[in-house]
Amino acid sequence: MKREDVSKIIPGITQEQLDSIMNLHGADITAKANEITTLKAEKTTLTEQLNTANGKLEGYDPEWKAKAEQAKTDAASQVTALEKGYALERKAAGLKFSSESARKAFLAEAKAQNFAMKDGEILGFDDYVKTFKDADPSAILPDGGMVQFSASATGAPGQPANAHEAANAAFRAAFGQKG
After folding, report:
1. Is 66 in the same domain as 104?
2. Does residue 141 share a domain with residue 112?
3. Strand bridging mode 117-118 / 121-122
4. pLDDT tens for residues 101-124?
5. Does residue 43 lie in a domain region?
6. What is the pTM of this model?
7. Is the domain of 36 the same as that of 84?
8. 35-41: long-range contacts at Cβ-Cβ below 8 A with a sequence spacing of 24 or more?
9. Above pLDDT 90, what percent of the chain?
10. Which domain holds residue 95?
11. 176 pLDDT band (50/70/90 cuts)?
12. Helix (H), strand (E), coil (C) string for the chain
């Protein structure tokens, strides 16, 4: 994340606010980098232990190599599934959902689609979003934010006293609630 990017997203941000955001982001990046370094060290240690154990297994289990290869294949599949899940969550983060339940349903269905991945990108994601929007138009909000209601309420129109009351009346009418 660059300062210029944040300034474009939040016009008029003060230098103090920008510094705070960048400091928080930097702390997050440092924490993740430390976690990655730790995990790499653990992986190296575990790989060495595995190689030692495999050497000892050679005399005990004639099928150990096949079992080890299967375990390696299974682990690679799990890593691929995790990467795909994270990529889907990142892509879905750019969408505005009407509720947390809608977001969870979208992600669950998207993960079940078994999308192909290329260079960290999900192939066919945009087409899936369009299909999902067609199937459930109220789940993903338009870029402007709230869902636009087009149906009018029945009954005699009243004259609200102010804009707040007008908005409340519109919501009551749209959701079938009485005033």
Report:
1. yes
2. yes
3. antiparallel
4. 988 989 899 888 888 888 878 888
5. yes
6. 0.46
7. no
8. none
9. 22
10. 62-148
11. low
12. CCHHHHHHHCCCCCHHHHHHHHHHHHHHHHHHHHHHHHHHHHHHHHHHHHHHHHHHHCCCCCCHHHHHHHHHHHHHHHHHHHHHHHHHHHHHCCCCECCHHHHHHHHHHHHHCCCCEECCEECCHHHHHHHHHHHCCCCECCCCCCCCCCCCCCCCCCCCCCHHHHHHHHHHHHHCCCC
Number of domains in the chain: 2
Cβ neighbours for 87, distance < 8 A, ≥ 6 positions apart: 117, 120, 121, 122
pLDDT score, position 44: 92
Tokens of 78: 């799990």
Q: Do residues 88 and 126 share a domain?
A: yes
Angle between helices 100-112 and 64-92 (to 10 degrees): 140
Residues 6+ positions from 120 with CB-CB distance below 8 Å:
83, 87
pLDDT at residue 46, rounded to an integer: 93
Residue 122: CB atoms within 10 Å:
18
Largest Cα–Cα separation, the chain: 89
